[in-house]
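Comment thread on ticket #2218

A.B. wrote:
> Attaching the input chain for the structure job we discussed in standup.
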Amino acid sequence: MIEYPLDIRGVILQKLNIDLDYTWVAPFFWSGTFQTYMGSLDPKVREKSRLLVESDCNYDARMIPRAAGIAARQGQLVLAQSLIEYFLDGTLEESSLEARALSIITDEKMKVKRLLNPNREWPKGIWNLQDSPTWIIPTFIRRFRKLVNENPVTIISGGHILAPGNWQWNFESNSVVPSSVIPFQ
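C.D. wrote:
> Ran it. Output below, let me know if you need it in another format.
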């Protein structure tokens, strides 16, 4: 059985390999490589898939791809799949889907803004976000790097729907990719 990460990469892979048996795993447990699966795709689909992945957690990305990434990280698979189909098709305008996309983006922005409170850093270099699920951490760290600093940082988050408990995310200087994600004791 193939493992897919419960994020935008996994939803794209699941869509492309509809006939394969798979299981979802927390994104930070996934050991696969997304690019490995993209080689045999039609160039147009490959490019749009690349844009979907790059748009995840990016404040400057277009609305539909960004919302698809948020929905996937939250485990809202039907919404994520609908947004991906809408983005890949690109011919129809569907105001209700666009409204849901805007709503999910606005909600994420408000959450990240609340988490950037300097009182959450205690002690220096450790941000306590235990009341927040892991799906918010990728967006938080990108915003943190832009607005706060580029120093090494540790983030303590709440759980993931596929990995309960608290997690310690360690980031090197100027990185948005964790060097490690381990259970927090």
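A.B. wrote:
> Thanks. Noting for the ticket: The helical segments are 8-16, 34-38, 43-55, 63-74, 77-89, 95-115, 137-147.
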